[in-house]
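To close the section, here is one more complete example, presented without commentary so you can practise reading it yourself. The ligand is NAP.
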Amino acid sequence: MTPALEEIDLDFADLGRTGLQTSELQLGTWRFGKENEAGELEIGEERATELLDAYEAAGGRYIDTADVYGGGDSERWIGDWLADRDRERYTIASKIYWQTREGDPNSRGTNRKSLRHRIDALLDRLDTDYVDVLYIHRWDDETPAREMMKTLNGLVESGKVHYLGASTLRPNAWKVARANEIARNEGWEPFTLLQPRYNLADREIEGDYLEFAREQGLAVCPWSPLGQGFLTGKYDREEDLPEDSRVAASSRFQESYLTEENFALHDELDAVADEVDASPAQVALAWLQHREGVSAPIVGARTVDQLRENLASATIDLSDEQVDRLTAAKEGPYDDL
Ligand SMILES: NC(=O)c1ccc[n+]([C@@H]2O[C@H](COP(=O)([O-])OP(=O)(O)OC[C@H]3O[C@@H](n4cnc5c(N)ncnc54)[C@H](OP(=O)(O)O)[C@@H]3O)[C@@H](O)[C@H]2O)c1
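Output:
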């Protein structure tokens, strides 16, 4: 049975070598204020507030957002919620990269103009003087790494940002490594966190990306830890897609996740879930927390019930044998090397 929120009592975990202690599960707010492909609001302000309350009740203190989530509503609603609380008790991460103004190429990327303007705009929406973590949401090939790192360092020195992170996919790992080398040579702040996509069905970052993170002591905070909801057991080989679900609403997600290889992996996930009397979602999250180098997954949820189920994964114990079986259920990118 899923424990009550107050009984979950999330622990703190090291955020890489930053020295910061962060919740072992972070709260993702990507879908706050987001319209789905049918034009309906997935999570409105009232539900967003309920989700933040529920996360807090379970002991959660780390909130992940981005300046483009819900066109800024995600940050605005978090700011409103934080206004009644002691800001110092929370770790807030946001991100900058995607274009914010139609027809204005300078409102995209990580050039000096974009970074300096957007940090002020997002602090205003969050109604705070600083973010604990600022991520570049994607790598910007148009801006020289030296210019970007110098500007980011200025944001840290000004006190508007405490730590820098890079949310990038595997092919850009070497660019982050090079940018960190420039920053260290110049005495500037380097990236100390990474935010990649990582889940049981999508292990693209295993190998060089995770090795790089380990070698540099970077915190790894995986996004989409449940494969957009695929790893929760609600999709079936034979049955129609459940209405009102993210994968059902997106042909792109159906193509990436609803494959026979992934359903075979899900069979093993179901078997382990039965053994430990937990749900597939809880086991998929617990597996991630067992992966070497993972600091804290970012949990997404559309409802408070989903969030409670997901946060309760922190109370699940998996044996080494169960972790190995799950890992072997789908070939990783480097298994044959
Ligand atoms: N840096 C980046 O580029 C990036 C990209 C993506 C996400 N992120 C961050 O990572 C966070 C998490 O990503 P994500 O939302 O993709 O995570 P996810 O856990 O893979 O997917 C969450 C979705 O799965 C479904 N779900 C979750 N728990 C469930 C449960 N117990 N039972 C049934 N369905 C469940 C819900 O959608 P439905 O109910 O609609 O099916 C929910 O919205 C985001 O909020 C964001 O903060 C970052």
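Once you have examined the tokens, check your reading against these statements. Residues 260-275 form the longest helix (16 residues). The chain has one domain: 5-328.
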